[in-house]
Amino acid sequence: MNRRALNTTLVLSGLAAGALLAGCAAFNQLSADVSTYGDWPAGQKAGTYAFERLPSQQARAEAQQRLEDAARPALERAGFKPASAGSQPDLLVQVGARVSRADRSPWDDPLWWPGGFGVWRHGYWRGPYWGASLRFESPRYEREVALLVRERASGKPLYEARASSEGSQSSAEPVLRPLFDAAMVDFPATGVNPRRVTVPLPG
Length: 203
What we know:
Elements: H1 3-27, E1 29-38, E2 48-51, H2 55-58, H3 61-77, E3 81-82, E4 91-102, E5 117-120, E6 123-126, E7 140-151, E8 157-167, H4 176-184, E9 195-200
Parallel strand pairs: 2-3, 2-4
Antiparallel strand pairs: 1-8, 1-9, 4-7, 5-6, 7-8
Helix pairs in contact: 3-4
């Protein structure tokens, strides 16, 4: 093998390895659209907290517990500490989640067309055509979490965060924790809403 061929082989091998590593990294991350709102007092640190449940959430205690367990690491990473038993927390936190199904259709995008080549007497043209065909689109699901932090003494809302991602899974449970991580990644700052945030998936 001559030097030029060897160099080409090394370059191609390097590119392939880089693409493989990039692909592996993508599988270990979650990208989410995040929106945050609020008026967190300047200079105030995150204090002690306790989860607060709505009556409908109290009726689904087991599911709500899983949701709170998923949100807890993101809260504690942001500096919040759970209130000790028997003490009053500084803050109350409400969390929620939902999944919305979206059946994709070509009519969702007014610029969609299948495209193709046609033949006419004087040559070829490329453009849209319509015809009967079978199209099978897998449904997509938007998984969203929401988090609201309120001051316990006054009841004033201080910080609200939402994060959503789209995927083929109908269950939100596998992505609850990274979605809460994404929702709280900029705390206590707000920003452009929505904005794209990428967080690592739990190991």
